[in-house]
Write a structure and sequence with these properties.
Oligomer: heterodimer
Strand content of chain A: 15-25%
Largest sheet of chain B: 8 strands, antiparallel
Number of helices of chain B: 15
Largest interface: A-B, 48 and 26 residues
Radius of gyration of chain A: 21 Å
Distance between the termini of chain B: 63 Å
Distance between the termini of chain A: 29 Å
Radius of gyration of chain B: 28 Å
Low-confidence stretches of chain A: none
Strand content of chain B: 25-35%
Number of helices of chain A: 16
Chain lengths: ~400, ~625
C-alpha cells in the first residue's frame, strides 16, 4: 500500500461502523488482507509501508508481529459483530507486504488459522501470500500449503540483472524457476509479478523478462509499469539526473508487448495489469477490491472497506501495536462514502476490468460520451452495444482518461 | 545654517517676481527623486525625521521601480540676498510613454534642471526631454549628480553637457543628492538664473492643467500653473475644452502636504479640488478659467492622449470579468490615457481590448490590476493600430488582429516612429544590425562625444513595441538608451498570420506581421505551442496560416498512456482523489475544439522570453 495515507475523518476509538456498513452485507463477499510490514532491504522504488527487520521493537517487532496481527483479528470480529454485520465466512485472504515470507511460515500459518477460527472459510476459498524468491524454501512453501494457503505470488519483477539492480532487488534470477517448481510441488497456484519501464530497461530487456516468466508457465501474471513515487530513493536519483526519467511512450510500448506476448502464451487480461490462464485463476481477492466487496485489512497502514466505509490504520508498526495493546482501534482515519462517491468509485474501478462496466450505471452524459470512446477506439463496440463498457488495448492504456470522460463534471 | 527662508511668501499674495518654477529632467536611476528629497529637506518643507526615501513618488509601484509615473508639484521657500523666494518644483514623469505629460509639465515652468548621472552621462530619454524643454524656451541648468560615486567622471560628462546645450563645462554644477553636496548652490542658482513668470494679473483667469490625480478621499486633485488672473476658492471655474463647470471647493499649494490658500495668482503653481471623480473631467493640457469672467482664448498645446499600443486583457478565471471591469473603471479615474472596450475571444473568453500610450504604460496598468485588484490576467501580444484600405476604398482601423479583413486589401498603413538611440560607439554595428532587422531606416548618426553616438532611425512602431528595447539592452550590455516619438505612417506589406489547432483558429494567437516575417512568426508560435500544450488522446496538428495558405506546421503526438498501473485496496481513496483533482484541472482548461489547452499555455505563448528563445537556438 502507498505510504501516504489519505486525509479522512477521524475514526472512533471503538472502531464501530456506521449503519450503512451493514446494509446489504449478506450479499457481499468478505475478505481479509494481512499486511506484513517487513522487508530484508528497502527497494529503491518502493513507497509501501514497510520496515527492515532491525528497525522495530516491542509488539511491532518481527517476532511479536503474528500475535499483534491476531489481536486485530479478534478486534475486527468484535467490531463487525457489534456494528450489526452478519457472520460471514472468508472468501479470500491475501498476505501482502513488505515481504510476508520474511516471517517464519509458522507465523503466517498461525495468523491464517486464527482468522479461520474466527470467521470460518468458504470451501474453495483463495488464500494468497506474496513472496520474495529469496525467502522461501520447499519446506516453508509446503508448510503454507498445509496451513491452507492456495496461491503464491512471487515478486520476480525482471529477469535482467541490471534492471533488478536499479530496483534494488536482491534475488538472483536463476532462483525463480526453482521456487516456482517448489510451489507447484507443494500444490500452490503460482503468480509472477513483473515490473516494466524501469530506468535503463530496453524493450529487449523487457521482452527477455516476459519470455523468461512465461517459460515458467505461471497461472497468473501481474505486470506493472514502474511508478516513481515521491520520497523514494529512485525519485531522488531521477531528480539528480543519476537515473533517466520515465517515458510514458516507452511504458506504452512495453505494455503492448506484454499484452501480446502474454496473450500469445494463452493467458488473458482480466484487469488492466493482470492476466490469468483461466478465468478461475484470476485473483479473486483483488477482484473483490475492484467490485466493491468488503474486506478487513489487518496490520499497520492497512486499508479496509465495508459497505462504502473506507478506513486505514496508523502507519507505524509501533503505534499500531500500542493501540491494539490498549484495546483501541488502530484506525487512523476513515471516510464514509455517499451514493455519488460510491458511483464514482464503481466507474473508476470496474472500467479497469475485462468484465467491464455496465453502461446503465453511467449518467446520461456518461452514456453519451461512450460513442466518442468507440470512435476513438478506446472501448469495444460490440460490448458497448450490449450495454457493457470494455476497454480495448488502446483504451486500457488510457483508462484514466476514459474514466474522466464518462464521469459527470 | 542653510539660508532657509524664515518667512515664506504667502500663496495668493506672492509677487511673480519672487516665484521660480522649474522641473528636473533626468533619466531613470539618475537620482532625480533623491535630489528632490534633499531639496525638500534643505528648504525646510520636510523635517529630516519625516523624510522617507523618494517622498514625492506616491504609488508603491513608483517607489519600487524607482520611477515617477505621475508628476507632482511642491512649493518651497528659499532665501537669497535677503529676499524670500517661492520655488515651485514640478516633478515630471521620466518615460517615453508619457511624453505628452512631460511636455505639459515643461510648459508650466520657466526653467529646467538637467540632471545627469556623473558616472553614466546623458541618456536618450533625457536628451529627448531636453529638446522638449529647449523648444519650450526653458532656461536649462546643467547638473551632474552622484559625484560622490567612485565611478563618477564629472569632467567628461560636464564637457558632454556643455557641448549639448552650449556654454562652459565650468558652469555645470556638481551635486550629490545622496550627501547633499552642491544642493544649496543649486537652489541659489535656480533663483538667480531662472526668469520669473510673466502674466497679466488683471486679465481673465487662465491656468494650465499639467496633471490630475484621483484621490480616494478627495476625488480628482488637479495641478495647475496660473498664467493670467487669479483663481479663488468657492468660485465656479470652467474647463475650456469641454466647457464643463465646477465649483472650486478647495485651492492651495503642496508643501509637500496639500495646504489650502486664499487663491493662486500669476505664476503660481498649486492644486484645485472640485469634487469631480474622473480625471477625464480634468484633462492634462486643458485651460481652467473663471466661469463668470471667462478667458476668450485657451492656452495652446492641448491634445487628447492617443493610445499607441493595444492589448487584450482577460481574466484567467472567467468569473473575474466583472472584477476586471470595475478595476479598469477605477484605474481610469486616475489615468486619462487609459481606454478600453469589451472584447470577446473564442479562446480566452470575455475581456477588454485596452489602449496604452506605450509598453511601460501597459506593464504598469497590468501590474496595478494584478496587485491592487488581486486579478490574474492574460494579456495578448501587444499590437499597434493599422489603417487598412480595402479595394472598394473603404478604410478600416484595426486595433486587434482578429479585425484584420480577410477580403481584398488595397493597402495597409502602419504607424512609424522616429527613434533615437544613444550608446557607446563600440555598439554601433550591433545596433544598426538590430534596427535594420526591424525594418528601420537610418536617418542620421552623430557623435555626442569621442565615444558616444546618437543614432536616429525611422521605424515601424510595431517593430519596437514587443521586445526591441530588451534586445537593444542585451546587445549593448545595457549601455544603450532609447527614445522614440510617433512620426507618421507608411504603407507596408503586412499580413495576418493565424494559428490553427486541429484546424480551429485560435484568435488570441493571430498576429499582424510583415510578410517577410510571417514565416518566422509561424514557426516560432507553432513550435512554442507544441511545447506548451500537453499531449491529448489524439494527434493535434498545429498550423500557421496566411489566409488559407499554411506556412508552418507542427504536431503534438497523441498521448498513449494515461493509466495508473496499480489500483489495489489502499490505492482506491488516493486514486479517487486524484481523479477529482484531474477533473478540477480540466475545468481550468480552455477548450479549442476538442483540444484542451491549459491557461498556462496561453500565458507562456503570449509572453516573449527572448533569453530563453535564444538559449534554444
Amino acid at each position: 500500500m502507498p505510504s501516504v495515507l489519505p486525509l479522512g475523518d477521524p475514526a472512533p476509538s471503538d472502531g464501530l461502523l456506521p449503519q450503512q456498513a451493514a446494509d446489504g452485507a449478506a450479499a457481499r463477499a468478505f475478505g481479509l488482507y494481512v499486511h506484513i510490514p517487513f522487508c530484508a532491504v528497502r527497494c529503491g522504488y518502493c513507497d509501501f509501508n514497510t520496515y527492515t527487520a532491525t528497525e522495530l521493537g516491542g509488539g511491532a517487532s518481527q517476532d511479536a508481529y503474528a500475535s499483534t496481527a491476531i489481536s486485530e483479528v479478534d478486534f475486527a470480529a468484535r467490531v463487525l459483530d457489534r456494528s450489526g454485520l452478519p457472520a460471514r465466512k472468508l472468501s479470500t485472504v491475501f498476505f501482502g507486504g513488505g515481504t510476508p515470507t520474511l516471517l517464519p511460515a509458522e507465523d503466517l500459518a498461525r495468523i491464517l488459522r486464527a482468522a479461520i477460527d474466527t470467521w470460518g472459510i468458504e470451501p474453495g476459498a483463495e488464500v494468497t501470500t506474496e513472496a520474495n524468491p529469496d525467502s522461501v524454501t520447499p519446506e516453508s512453501l509446503q508448510l503454507l500449503a498445509d496451513a491452507g494457503f492456495t496461491r503464491v505470488s512471487f515478486g520476480m519483477q525482471s529477469a535482467v540483472p541490471h534492471v533488478l539492480k536499479v530496483l534494488d532487488r536482491t534475488h538472483t534470477p536463476s532462483r525463480v524457476p526453482l521456487v516456482v517448481q517448489w510451489a507447484r510441488d507443494a500444490g500452490l497456484a503460482v503468480s509472477l509479478d513483473l515490473i516494466y519501464g524501469t530506468p535503463g530497461e530496453s524493450l529487449e530487456d523487457w521482452r527477455f523478462s516476459l519470455e523468461t516468466a512465461l517459460s515458467y508457465q505461471p497461472d497468473h501474471i501481474s505486470a506493472y509499469a514502474l511508478i516513481i513515487e515521491d520520497g523514494t530513493k529512485l525519485a531522488a536519483q531521477i531528480r539528480r539526473g543519476e537515473v533517466p526519467e520515465i517515458d510514458d511512450d516507452d511504458h506504452a510500448d512495453k505494455y503492448e508487448l506484454a499484452d501480446r506476448m502474454i496473450s500469445d502464451a494463452g493467458l488473458h487480461w482480466y484487469e488492466v495489469s493482470n492476466w490469468s490462464a483461466t478465468p478461475e485463476q484470476a485473483c479473486r481477492h483483488n477482484l473483490a477490491y475492484w467490485r466493491g466487496d468488503d474486506w478487513w485489512g489487518i496490520g499497520p497502514g492497512a486499508h479496509s472497506h465495508v459497505g462504502g466505509v473506507r478506513w486505514w490504520n496508523v502507519k507505524h508498526p509501533t503505534a499500531y501495536a500500542g493501540r491494539l495493546g490498549s484495546g483501541v482501534s488502530p484506525a487512523a482515519g476513515r471516510e464514509t462514502l455517499g451514493p455519488e462517491t460510491r458511483g464514482v468509485e464503481k466507474v473508476m474501478l470496474e472500467a479497469r476490468l475485462f468484465s467491464g462496466l455496465e453502461t446503465a450505471a453511467l449518467s446520461p452524459a456518461g452514456r453519451k460520451a461512450v460513442a466518442g470512446l468507440i470512435a476513438d477506439g478506446l472501448v469495444v463496440p460490440e460490448d458497448a452495444f450490449r450495454g457493457r463498457l470494455v476497454l480495448t488495448l488502446k483504451g486500457r492504456l488510457l483508462a484514466d482518461a476514459v474514466v474522466r470522460r464518462i464521469l459527470p463534471d | 545654517m542653510s539660508p532657509m527662508a524664515r518667512t515664506a511668501p504667502v500663496p495668493a499674495a506672492t509677487d511673480p517676481a519672487i516665484i521660480r518654477n522649474f522641473c528636473i529632467i533626468a533619466h531613470i536611476d539618475h537620482g532625480k527623486s533623491t535630489l528632490a528629497d534633499r531639496m525638500l529637506q534643505f528648504t525646510g518643507v520636510v523635517q529630516s525625521r519625516d523624510m522617507k526615501a523618494q517622498y514625492l513618488d506616491r504609488m508603491d509601484i513608483e517607489r519600487e521601480r524607482g520611477i515617477t509615473i505621475k508628476s507632482q508639484a511642491v512649493r518651497m521657500p528659499w532665501e537669497l540676498g535677503g529676499v524670500n523666494y517661492a520655488l515651485n518644483m514640478i516633478d515630471t514623469p521620466g518615460h517615453v510613454d508619457f511624453t505628452y505629460e512631460v511636455s505639459r509639465s515643461l510648459a508650466a515652468c520657466e526653467g529646467a534642471v538637467l540632471l545627469v548621472d556623473a558616472a553614466q552621462g546623458i541618456e536618450a530619454q533625457t536628451l529627448a526631454n531636453l529638446y522638449l524643454a529647449m523648444e519650450n524656451d526653458l532656461t536649462i541648468i546643467p547638473v551632474l549628480n552622484k559625484i560622490d560615486l567612485p565611478a563618477a567622471q564629472p569632467e567628461k560628462y560636464a564637457a558632454e553637457l556643455a557641448s549639448l546645450i552650449g556654454g562652459d563645462p565650468e558652469d555645470v554644477l556638481l551635486v550629490s543628492g545622496k550627501t547633499g553636496v552642491g544642493v544649496e548652490a543649486l537652489l541659489d542658482k535656480i533663483v538667480r538664473d531662472l526668469p520669473a513668470p510673466v502674466g497679466d494679473p488683471d486679465a481673465p483667469a487662465r491656468a494650465m492643467i499639467f496633471d490630475s490625480v484621483y484621490d480616494t478621499y478627495r476625488g480628482v486633485v488637479t495641478y495647475v500653473r496660473v498664467v493670467d488672473g487669479m483663481l479663488h476658492p468657492r468660485e465656479r471655474i470652467q474647463m475650456m475644452s469641454t466647457k464643463a463647470s465646477h465649483e472650486l471647493l478647495e485651492i492651495g499649494v503642496s508643501s509637500p502636504e496639500p495646504t489650502p490658500s486664499k487663491g493662486l495668482g500669476v505664476g503660481e503653481v498649486g492644486y484645485l479640488i472640485t469634487g469631480v471623480k474622473d480625471v477625464r473631467q480634468s484633462k492634462v493640457g486643458d485651460t481652467v478659467t473663471n466661469l463668470a469672467k471667462p478667458a476668450s482664448e485657451s492656452l495652446s498645446g492641448y491634445a487628447d492622449p492617443k493610445p499607441m499600443v493595444f492589448s487584450g486583457l482577460y481574466p484567467l478565471d472567467g468569473t473575474d470579468y466583472p472584477v476586471l471591469r470595475d478595476a479598469l473603471d477605477k484605474l481610469k479615474l486616475n489615468d486619462a490615457a487609459l481606454i478600453y472596450e469589451p472584447e470577446t475571444s473564442a479562446a480566452l473568453g470575455f475581456g477588454f481590448r485596452v489602449g496604452f500610450l506605450g509598453l511601460l504604460h501597459l506593464e504598469i496598468v497590468r501590474e496595478r490590476l494584478e496587485r491592487e485588484f488581486n486579478l490574474d490576467l492574460i494579456s495578448t501580444a501587444p499590437n499597434v493600430v493599422y489603417e487598412v484600405t480595402l479595394e472598394d476604398k473603404n478604410v478600416i482601423t484595426v486595433t486587434n488582429p482578429s479585425e484584420f479583413p480577410s477580403g481584398k486589401i488595397n493597402e495597409v498603413r502602419e504607424p512609424m516612429v522616429a527613434a533615437t538611440i544613444l550608446a557607446p560607439n563600440e555598439f554601433v554595428g550591433a545596433i544598426m544590425e538590430l534596427c535594420q532587422g526591424r525594418r528601420g531606416v537610418m536617418r542620421g548618426m552623430d557623435y555626442l562625444s569621442e565615444d558616444r553616438v546618437e543614432l536616429r532611425y525611422w521605424m515601424p512602431l510595431a517593430e519596437i513595441v514587443f521586445d526591441f528595447f530588451d534586445l537593444l539592452k542585451s546587445k549593448t550590455r545595457g549601455y544603450a538608451s532609447l527614445d522614440w516619438k510617433a512620426d507618421g505612417e507608411q504603407v507596408a506589406d503586412l499580413v495576418k498570420v493565424d494559428i490553427l489547432l486541429q484546424g480551429e483558429q485560435v484568435d488570441a494567437f493571430s498576429a499582424i506581421t510583415h510578410k517577410d516575417k510571417a514565416y518566422a512568426y509561424g514557426v516560432m508560435m507553432t513550435g512554442k505551442l507544441r511545447e506548451l500544450i500537453p499531449r491529448q488522446q489524439f494527434e493535434v496538428p498545429i498550423q500557421a496560416a496566411i489566409g488559407s495558405r499554411i506556412i508552418a506546421r507542427e504536431s503534438i503526438r497523441a498521448i498513449r498512456k494515461d493509466v495508473l498501473a496499480k489500483c489495489y485496496g489502499g490505492d482506491i481513496s488516493r486514486k479517487r482523489k486524484l481523479l477529482e483533482k484531474q477533473k478540477e484541472g480540466k475545468k481550468r482548461m480552455k477548450m479549442v475544439g476538442r483540444v484542451e489547452v491549459p491557461q498556462e499555455a496561453f500565458i507562456a505563448a503570449l509572453t516573449t522570453d527572448e533569453s530563453k528563445d535564444k538559449a534554444k537556438k
